[in-house]
Structures are given as C-alpha cells and as structure tokens.
Amino acid sequence: MDIDVLGALDVRENGVSIAPTAPKPRQVLALLALHADQVVPVAGLIEELWAAKPPRSARTTLQTYVLQLRELITVALEKDAPDEGEPARSAKDVLVTSPGGYLLVTGGGTSDVREFERLAGTGYRAMDAGDFPGAARKLREALSLWTGAAFADVQTGNQLQMEAKRLDESRLCALDQRIEADLRLGRHRELLAELTVLTSRYRTHENLHAQFMLALHRSGRRGEALDVYHRLRGTLVRDLGLEPSARLRRLQQSILMAASETPLSMDHQTPATSQLPPAGTGRGRVAQV
C-alpha cells in the first residue's frame, strides 16, 4: 500500500486508489493512513468525525464507513491475484479490526510522511556534521514530497487539523534549514525570490526575515536588507506588541556597521550564518554579516 497525505489524499493498493469521495469515510481513511501500521482507537476516530457531539449511532456509523473502505480495498485486491498455492489476502487483512480500534496495514508500501521525516532527519544530521551540500540536497528532496497543504482535499476534524499543523511546522523547519544550508553555500542571490515570497507569507517569522536580510546584504543590497528589518519590526509591534528579538537587533546592527565599500562575496565573508534556529527553538547564534 502506498500512502500520500502531504497534499491531496491518495491511498493505493496494487496501484488502485482506495480513497472514497464521500467526506466522512475519507476522513476515516486519512486518519488511518497517517497512523498506518498502528492501531487508531475507535474513540479517536469518533472524535475526529463528530468532535464532542457524536450521535448515538456513532459506533455503528463508523463501522459502516469501515465497510465502505473495505469494499474499495476488495476491488483493489482483485487486480493482483495470488500465485497458485498462496493464500489470498482479504480486505480484513488490510484494514484490520483490532481490540479498541482499527489498523491499516501497509505491507511494506510507501508513506510520503515517513519518507519526508527520514530525508529531513538525514538533512539535519548533515547540517550538524557541517555537510552543507548534503544537507541542502536531502532537505530539498524531503520538501519535494509536498504537493500542497497536508490533507488538502480532506474535511478535517480536531485530530487531523492538529496533525496538519504539526506537519506544516515540520515542513517549515525543514525549509528553514534548507535555506540555511544554501546560505552556507553562498547561494544568496538564488534565494532572494523564494525569500521574498516566504517573508510575505510568514510575516512574523523572524528566522526567515533574518535569512532574507542576510541574503540581500550579501547580494549588495544593504538598504533593502534594513527595510526588511523595519517592516518586520512594524508588523511585530502592530500585531503582537513585541519588539524583534535580540538576535534580530544584533543582525541589524551588524549590517548597519558593515562598511558599504566592503565586498560582499563569499570569498570575503565569514561562513553564511551561525545556524539561525527555527522559530521557537532558541538554538544557535545570530547570523554574521
């Protein structure tokens, strides 16, 4: 079974999609797919479908949705007849009823979430080891698995909404570190267009703004780098009542103090940034210019 949730939901058995079009069975499949090869409790599925107000028939209705999914699985299994003498798999072998819940068996298939986490983890370890080309490559591979927001075409309840936020934060962390690796490799001008979009989308994300400031400064656009700081400060003060962090203020001062005639190529500068941390982690030091 192959599972994609980093974008539109797509779950395939023998290459045949088993994703229903009806909203609530689709919700059930999405939660089972995210936690594939693990038991998802009935209570968790009911909460996802009806939050705090499940109908009296909730368990019976959930069983109906499971039966509908098994019907789709049965059709997919019929495409791949077993060799003579091998036992045929049934839909109940794929979508298993377990004490207290249900389990979707992948049978060694792929999961884009698991592959993303594996590649991102490899990228983070490469960053820690100072292998910036390897980190950039692995993190770029991890991010390429995303085709849209997680569960983009699924009606989401409390649990899927929470999981979607978690996954989006993981994606943002990987993106942050991929940009950091690219900065370490001197790809400042290549990053400008991407960081223009990202800082517009994440208007209070200090790390992305710091990276944008550094990329602009190293591209010979010091005034625009300072403009980025002032826009961020205005947004933070206006929307959140906060001043930029000490790290951002130090970066601004470093840019202000840099002599305008100093060459800004990588050959004349200290290594990219000093590991600007993802938002909220508190890791690392402020970037040097």
* Number of DSSP E strands: 6
Number of separate helices: 11
Helix content: 55-70%
Q: Strand order of the main beta sheet, please?
A: 1-2-3
Order of helices and strands: EEEHEHHHEEHHHHHHH
- Overall mean pLDDT score? 88
Q: Which outline best applies?
A: elongated
Strand content: 5-15%
Q: Which parts are unreliable, with pLDDT below 50 for 5 consecutive residues or more?
A: 263-287
- Using the CA coordinates, give the radius of gyration: 24 Å
Distance between the termini: 49 Å
Class by SSE composition? mainly alpha
Q: Main β-sheet, in a few words?
A: 3 strands, antiparallel
Verbal overview:
The chain is mainly α and 289 residues long. It is built from 11 helices and 6 strands. The chain has helices at 23-34, 42-50, 58-77, 91-94, 112-128, 132-144, 158-184, 188-201, 206-218, 222-240, 246-257; strands at 2-4, 10-13, 16-17, 39-41, 95-98, 101-104. The strands form 2 sheets. A 3-stranded antiparallel beta sheet has the order 1-2-3. Strands 4-6-5 form a 3-stranded antiparallel beta sheet. Strand 2 (10-13) and strand 3 form a beta hairpin. The protein is elongated, with a radius of gyration of 24 Å. The protein starts with a strand and ends in a 32-residue tail after the last helix.
